[in-house]
């Protein structure tokens, strides 16, 4: 049994030319940058800013965003080299298959399913909350049975996923145009928050910038960061350790730049444009995150921040209700693009896995008119609708973080491996200081993973164990790399 059989870079590229499984090249560097901004600016900036400032980091939440941004930047270098060298759908899954082998590739693909599908459903539920709140503010409250924490079925979440699934089926260019309009809207709102908020900042709210470390219910028992448990440190929030614990949480705000890499196969000039899309979107979003977090904690003392809608509630606290309404509209636009691009990323990862036979290959057929994997998109849309409509998530969102960080670790290792095994490959973008920077990326990601709660690690291990069973029960026997897929 050879579970570490690799798929050559040349074979991966040849597979993209199969007419039955060929995606259309329609995207440019601008499209990719907008996709990146579309998925990054969302839950993190509209929700997590207040939550982690109030519960974990205080005004120093801005430093947590910087830490998370640096970790993402290191991983982004590795993603840029891979995506420009192997411009194939699948992102980290495809990269792992070419370097580490089939089983590691399956593990990372299974991990990306956790990251993208769960994240899309979580954000759809957040979208529903903002939508219901906006309707209530104009006197049109939704029944509790179809919206809110106690809903029998979260209908707004189901509807928004259904609409965006239809957009994705209709074509990648239409998806990019819809995304562009919504991204312009939400970036404009974010800039309004920054500029208008500056007029209400009080210097006293920045003191203490790093609150004294304290033990709280937020970090008790299995909710404690694994790092603090392993090293016998009394679990605390705030202080310097709180900054890093918060960075592991706000990391959710950066999730998505790697989705840009999943669209490499549909990019006109991927060798040039994918790195530009990755770095452009990540740089813009990091600056906006830091600016917004500094403004919000300056407007309202961190102990009084809302954990549900911190931006709009901060403006309400200073008597600017009209701006709160505008922010809610921006949040709706922002969360819509996040769901759209996460669904896009999920379909492209599963498309690559299906094309390789690790999941049923019939799902990878491209629609003759739309040029998209329509069947797969519909399947993913239905599953995400079910998750968003009927499952209560709570802290399961932290599973998304650990899944993403694990993917970053694999990609960073893969860069070093491919440099050694295939030094002959043309690389239009090269990570500098190899292997130093990839090693730093691995260590930084592992450190953030260790700052996630123990319960998150337990759930992650269970999900991965389930994936191993699926691999040996189905995927290994149907893999095209092993010859089975050639009969299909």
List keywords for this structure.
66% helix; mainly alpha; globular; 488 residues
Structure, briefly:
By secondary structure, the protein is mostly helical. The chain contains 18 helices and no strands. Helix content is 66%, strand content 0%.
Question: Termini distance?
Answer: 21 Å
Summarize the amount of helix as a percent range.
55-70%
Order of helices and strands: HHHHHHHHHHHHHHHHHH
Identify low-pLDDT runs. Answer: none
Strand content: under 5%
Give the SSE map.
Elements: H1 9-15, H2 29-40, H3 43-57, H4 61-85, H5 92-99, H6 102-137, H7 155-170, H8 172-197, H9 226-230, H10 239-250, H11 259-262, H12 270-299, H13 310-317, H14 321-355, H15 374-390, H16 397-421, H17 436-450, H18 454-478
Helix pairs in contact: 2-8, 2-12, 2-14, 3-10, 3-12, 4-10, 4-12, 4-16, 4-17, 5-6, 5-16, 6-7, 6-14, 6-15, 6-16, 6-18, 7-8, 7-14, 7-15, 8-12, 8-14, 13-14, 14-15, 16-17, 16-18
């Amino acid at each position: 049994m050879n579970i570490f059989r690799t798929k050559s870079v040349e074979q991966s590229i040849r597979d993209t030319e199969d007419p039955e499984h060929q995606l259309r090249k329609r995207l440019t560097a601008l499209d990719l940058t907008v996709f990146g901004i579309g998925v990054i600016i969302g839950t993190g900036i509209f929700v997590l800013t207040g939550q982690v400032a109030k519960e974990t980091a205080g005004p120093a939440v801005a430093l947590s965003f910087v830490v998370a941004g640096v970790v993402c930047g290191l991983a982004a270098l590795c993603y840029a080299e891979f995506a420009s060298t192997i411009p194939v759908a699948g992102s980290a899954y495809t990269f792992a298959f070419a370097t580490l082998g089939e089983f590691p590739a399956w593990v990372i693909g299974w991990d990306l399913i956790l990251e993208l599908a769960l994240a899309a459903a979580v954000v759809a539920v957040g979208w529903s909350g903002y939508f219901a709140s906006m309707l209530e503010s104009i006197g049109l409250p939704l029944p509790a049975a179809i919206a809110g924490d106690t809903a029998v079925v979260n209908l707004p979440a189901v509807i928004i996923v259904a609409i965006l699934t239809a957009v994705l089926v209709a074509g990648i260019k239409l998806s990019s145009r819809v995304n562009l309009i919504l991204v312009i809207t939400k970036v404009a709102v974010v800039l309004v928050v920054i500029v208008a908020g500056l007029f209400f900042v009080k210097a006293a709210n920045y003191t203490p910038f790093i609150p004294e470390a304290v033990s709280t219910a937020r970090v008790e028992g299995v909710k404690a960061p694994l790092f603090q448990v392993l090293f016998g440190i009394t679990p605390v929030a705030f202080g310097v350790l709180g900054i890093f614990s918060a960075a592991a949480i706000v990391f959710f705000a950066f999730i998505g730049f790697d989705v840009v890499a999943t669209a490499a196969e549909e990019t006109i000039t991927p060798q040039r444009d994918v790195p530009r899309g990755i770095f452009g979107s990540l740089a813009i979003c990091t600056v906006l995150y830091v600016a917004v977090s500094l403004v919000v904690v300056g407007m309202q003392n961190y102990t009084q921040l809302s954990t549900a809608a911190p931006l709009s509630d901060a403006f309400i606290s200073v008597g600017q209700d009209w701006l709160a309404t505008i922010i809610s509209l921006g949040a709706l636009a922002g969360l819509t693009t996040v769901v759209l691009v996460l669904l896009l990323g999920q379909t492209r990862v599963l498309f690559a896995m299906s094309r390789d036979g690790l999941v049923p290959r019939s799902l990878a057929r491209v629609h003759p008119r739309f040029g998209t994997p329509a069947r797969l998109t519909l399947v993913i849309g239905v599953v995400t609708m079910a998750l968003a409509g009927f499952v209560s998530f709570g802290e399961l969102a932290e599973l998304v973080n650990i899944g993403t960080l694990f993917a970053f670790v694999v990609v960073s290792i893969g860069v070093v491996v491919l440099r050694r095994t295939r030094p002959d490959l043309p690389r239009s973008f090269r990570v500098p200081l190899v292997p130093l920077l990839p090693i730093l990326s691995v260590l930084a990601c592992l450190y953030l993973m260790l700052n996630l709660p123990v319960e998150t690690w337990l759930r992650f291990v269970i999900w991965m164990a389930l994936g191993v069973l699926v691999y040996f029960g189905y995927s290994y026997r149907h893999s095209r790399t092993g010859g089975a897929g050639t009969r299909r």
